[in-house]
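TEACHING EXERCISE
Course module: macromolecular assemblies
Task: Read the component lines below, then compare them to the predicted structure of the full complex.
Student: A.B.
Group: 4
Components provided:
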Amino acid sequence: MASSFKFIDHTADVAVDLEADSLEELFSSAVEAFKISITDIECIEISDSIEIEITGASKEELLVDFLNEINFYVTTKKWLCCGIESIKVFNDENEWELSAEVNGIKLNSEKDLKQEIKSVTYHQMEIIAKNNMYSTRVVFDI
Amino acid sequence: MNISGIELLKVRENLWEIPASGKMKVPGRIYISQEMIEKGFKDSEALKQVANVAQLPGIEKYSLAMPDIHWGYGFPIGGVAATNLNEGVVSPGGVGYDINCGVRLATTNLEYNSVKKRTGKLVEKLFKAVPTGVGASGAIKRLSTGELKKVLSKGSAWALENDLGTSEDVSFTEESGTLRNADSNSVSKRAYERGADQVGTLGSGNHFLEVDVVEEIFNAEAAEIFGMFLGQVVIQIHTGSRGLGYQVCDDYLKILLQVSSKYGFNLPDRQLACAPIKSQEGQDYLSAMQAAANFAWNNRQVIMHLTKKVFKDTFNQSDSELGFNLVYDVCHNIAKIEKHKINGGEKEVCVHRKGATRAFPSGSKLIPEKYRSVGQPVLIPGDMGRNSYVAVGTEKAMEETFGSSCHGAGRNLSRKKAMKNAKGRNLIEELKQKGIVIQAKGYRTIAEEMPDAYKDVLDVVNVMHTEGITKKVAKLRPVGVIKG
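Instructor-supplied answer key:
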C-alpha cells in the first residue's frame, strides 16, 4: 500500500496531485492533503469518528462528495479529520459507492484553522488508472 | 496573436476574438490590451474556458471576458455569457461558489486630513466589530432556521426590519437588495447550517473591509451625484454569501451534473454542469441562487451597519453629522434574467456574470432615480496596497457586454508564490510606509493577498474606460484595511 501527494502552483487556489496504488489509498491521501491545506495542528489523540456513506455516478463525484462531506464537518461542527479508520470504494453496476469511517478531533478554536475551503471542485479532476496506480488532481476553491 | 496555442484575432485595440470552431456556438471575445498581453498574460486555461462557455446551449452573441480574466471553475473569472430563455441553460459555473459576492461603497462627511491620526484606532475597532477569517461567526446572534428563511426571502429588507439599516441603504442596493423569486425552500438544510451564524461576517481570502480616501475625481458631475468629494473618507465592503452560498453551489452542481445527460448535454467540463432555464432543475437552482444572493446583500448590509456604529463611536458623531451614506452595492457573481438588444430585437436572457459587474447606463429604469442622469456606479476594488476605482455604466456596455464590466484586479501570483515573495519582508511595515494601516486574523492572509500578488487594477479599468464600456468617476486610496 503506497500513496503520495504534491501541492502544485495554482494562481487563485490550492491544487494537489495525488497518486496511490488503490482507490482507497488515493481517497485517503486526498483527506490528508485536505487536512494539511486547512491546518498546521497535529492530531495527538483521536476523540471520535464519523461514518460517511456516499453514492455517485463516477469515481470523481465520489471523491468530490467525500471531501465536501468532511469539509462540512469542519465548517459547521468544528471537527477536524485526522485519518481514515476504514474505507471501501466499490462499483455496483452503474453506481459508485463509498463507505468510510474517518477519525477526528474537536477543534478548540477557529484559530486552529489557517484556511477556509469554500468547496472541493471538479476542476481538472480525472481519476486515471495506469500500471496498477491511480492518480488525479484535486483543486480546492479557497 | 497566439497565446499558448490559442489563436486570438484582433477586433479593435482592446478587443480580441476566438473564432467559433468545433462545438463553439458563438465566438469568444476578450477585452484586454496589447500591453496587458505583453506584460505577461498567458492564461491559456482561461482562454480555453472562454471557448468552453461558447458551447453552452442557447448562448447568444459571444462568450465574453473582461480584462481581469483569469482561470476559474467552468467559466473564467471575468466571464460574461447570456443564454436565451427558450433553449438556453443556467449554469452554477457561471455564477461561482460565492453567490452574490460583491462590493458596497459608503461615503462619510469626514475629511481624511482631520481624522488621519485616528486611523489606527478606527481600524482596531472595526477589526473587533466585524468578524473576519476562517469560519468567522457571531457578528449578531445565531439565527434560527425560521429567521434565516426570512433573510433568504427578504435580503437587505431583513436588516431594515431589524434596525440594522436604513431605507436609503436598501434603495441604493442593486435590485434594492432583494431578488423576488428567491425560494428559501430550494435551499438545503446543510446550507442553512453553514449560514446560521455567519450573517454580518467577512470571511477570509480576498474579502475585505477597507477605509479609503477619495484621491482623484475624473467626472465631477457623477462624483457630486454620488456624494463624493476630494479628500473624503469612504468605506468599501467586499464579501458574499459565505458558507450558505458555497453549499448552494455544491448542492446544485451535483443535481445538474446528474441531469446534464438527461438533457443530452455533452459538456467539456463538469464545472459547466447546467440545466435548461425552463426545466424544474434550472428553476430550482435559480430560486436557490437568488435566496443565497439575498443572504449576501443582507450580509453586506449588516456589516455596513456594524461599521457605521464603530465610526459613530470613534468620532463621537450623530448619524447626520457622520453622513454614512451608501453610494451603491453591486454583485459580481450572479445570473440574472434581463432584457437585452439582440440581433435588432429585444430579448429576455439569463446573463451570467462570474467576476463581472453589472454596468447599466444613464436612463436605465433599473438603477436608482438619483443616478439616472449619469449611469449606475460600478465599483472596482484594487488590491490592499493600491487604488480602487468608481466608474459608471454606459450605453456601449448594453450594446456589447450585456451591460457588464470588470470587477477587480485579478491575481497574478499563486498564493504559494506570494508567500515566497513575502519571506524576509515586513509587509505590515511596507504598507505603513504607504500610509495604510492593516489588521488581519493572520499574517498569512496579508502575505497571500499582498499587492505584488495582483495585477495592476488600473490596466483593467483603463481597458474598460478606453473602450467606453464604463467611464471612470473617481479613484480611491486605501488607508485602513481589515482582512480575514
